[in-house]
Amino acid sequence: MSLRNLKELTIIAKEAFSKTFLVAKSLCFLHVTNTHVFTVASLYGPSMLPTFNLTGDWALAERFSHKLGKVGAGDIVILKSPVEPRKIMTKRVMGVEGDSVTYVVEPKNSDRTETIVVPKGHIWVEGDNIYNSKDSRNFGAVPYGLLRGKMLWKLDFSALLRSNASANLNSRDLWGSSANRSAETGEEKNTSPG
């Protein structure tokens, strides 16, 4: 092997190492961001109907406010199931520690309600579709430690695809409400200024 070939091989090896290192740094950044800052969640199942569809919905969730105790009633959260630890669930917070929560015990069979006070370090979660949801009514209050994130936006990719590249999207478009209304009525949205 000549000296010239050795120099070329050294240059190629340095470039390969540099690109590999860049890819590794990028993957580490994505992992840390996904684990501790933001994540995109794929949602499925009937428990959050009508807020989310049975399949195909995506949402952007942040992963830090629950660690700071910034989760409140009405928030939609991602959490580990207390009865199936490998399962991740999406539910709405109905109450936080110290809150008094009244819930329908068996919505399919009766209107009987019970009231509980959420214990310290716990939250009470329920699915929006109370007739088809396994939630705190079944397994009780959930420890804060099982929370994995809080939903920020429902991502409606079909609205993004329907919009042209120059359209200004607002949060209503991301939640799908104004985009769906336009699709149902057959009206076109005027997104140009003025």
What does this structure look like?
InterPro entries: LexA/Signal_pep-like_sf, Mito_IMP1_subunit, Pept_S26A_signal_pept_1, Peptidase_S26. Residues 184-194 have a biased composition (Basic and acidic residues). It is found in: Mitochondrion inner membrane. The structure is a single chain. With 194 residues, this protein is an alpha+beta fold. The chain folds into 3 domains: 1-36; 39-153, Umud Fragment, subunit A; 156-185, no CATH class. It has 5 helices and 9 strands. A 7-stranded antiparallel sheet has the order 1-2-9-3-4-7-8. A hairpin with an 8-residue loop joins strand 5 and strand 6. The longest helix is centred in the N-terminal third of the chain and has 34 residues, at 3-36. It is elongated and about 85 Å long.
Short description:
The protein has 194 residues and is an alpha+beta fold. It has helices at residues 3-36, 136-139, 157-162, 171-175, 177-185, and strands at 38-43, 57-62, 76-80, 88-96, 100-104, 113-117, 122-126, 142-143, 147-155. The chain has a seven-stranded antiparallel β-sheet with strand order 1-2-9-3-4-7-8.
Describe how the helices and strands are arranged:
Layout: H1 3-36, E1 38-43, E2 57-62, E3 76-80, E4 88-96, E5 100-104, E6 113-117, E7 122-126, H2 136-139, E8 142-143, E9 147-155, H3 157-162, H4 171-175, H5 177-185
Antiparallel strand pairs: 1-2, 2-9, 3-4, 3-9, 4-7, 5-6, 7-8
Name its key features.
194 residues, 5 helices, 3 domains, seven-stranded antiparallel β-sheet, Umud Fragment, subunit A, alpha+beta, two-stranded antiparallel ribbon, disordered C terminus
